[in-house]
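The passage that follows is intended for readers who have already worked through the single-chain material. We present the inputs for a multi-component assembly, then the predicted structure in tokenized form, and finally a short commentary. You are encouraged to pause after the input and sketch how you expect the pieces to fit together before reading on.
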Amino acid sequence: MSSSIAIPNVAVQNPLSRILRLLPGVALLAAIGFAGKILEQSINRYVKAHHIVFPNIEYVLWAIVIGLLIGNLLTVPKFFDAGIATYEFWLKAGIVLLGARFVVGDIAKLGGISLALVVLEITGSLALMTLLGRIFHLRPKLTNLLAVGSAVCGVSAIIAAKGAIDADDEDSSFAIAAILALGAISLVAFPFVGHLFHMSDNAYGLWAGLAVDNTAEATAAGALYSDAAGKLAVLAKTCRNAMIGFVVLAYAIHWAKQGQAKAVTNKARFLWEKFPKFVLGFLVISALVSAHLFSKDQVSNLANLSRWAFLLTFAGVGLRTNFRQMSKQGLKPFVVGALGEILIAVLTLGLVVGANHIWKL
Amino acid sequence: MPHLETPVPRNFFRLSLDAWAVAAAFTLALLVRVGVLKHVPW
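Having made your guess, compare it with the prediction:
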């Protein structure tokens, strides 16, 4: 007689229904992003026609602001959620396509400088956040999550570290809320400081990529300054993202030694699992373009596709930033995060000024 | 003999977000390369 054992949670989901579930939210992202673009163009046309002196406000800011207003003032129905969450997919696809705007030589030069600064930034940020966590008596694992989030790559790093060091859900939601709130503030603060110091596009882009935590916010903070700054911000941020595995591995080993996390048996596999694969896609596209496999027009088409993908991302950044939810998470992690972020911004600004002096960015 | 009703593991067809993003970007690049996407406006 044969008996049958059904394994729970093996529901076969229809791929078509999964895609259909995403459509309303993706359509909302596209509508908000496109509205931002139209708004920028309309204001520019009006200002030009009426000879009014008015600063050019990029579509990036409009898309974020419209998203923020909708997300915080209206109640977005639940059926939009799945599609809104795809903003991270558009961000990563956009970064891969952005590889078309870098020839391999640029990546070797600017990427090499970025990588050297990233190593210094990560070391300084981890030390600073750990010190602040101790001064403010935060729980050690919460301090670690904040340190990883601010040193490497925001929310993805916190999620990766959470599993590796076996941290509480509460600690990780504190850390994520603090990092997201600070990311939202950096969208205003970074371009302001950049203009205040008359920073060059390259220097500003490098600074935004080094200091702003979440990849989406770093991309937006760069693009808010200029197209060229946005390009370099993505390159520097990608270098930071590539380091995620090493930092998380170090914390995992530390907590495993304390008997408070699972031991890492295969370090190479751990590093590969944590490595952000879109970085490889970015390098492949750049290599193909550098090998002249695409014509000039085709490269311009790839760059435009990347801009469209980022447009959806920026709309998602605005929609996803919910100040009411963030305020519920408590003040202490936010204060520690804010103090740390200010110190990291100053530290990285110093690094960029130094690099600019040496390499003339 | 027990028979497990799980011929296909749950994550068999599930790629990571990164993999989907890279696949989508490469597909778009291919469409540009072969001339299906001839002019992408901005």
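Commentary: The helical segments of chain B are 17-33. The longest strand of chain B covers residues 3-4. How closely did your sketch match?
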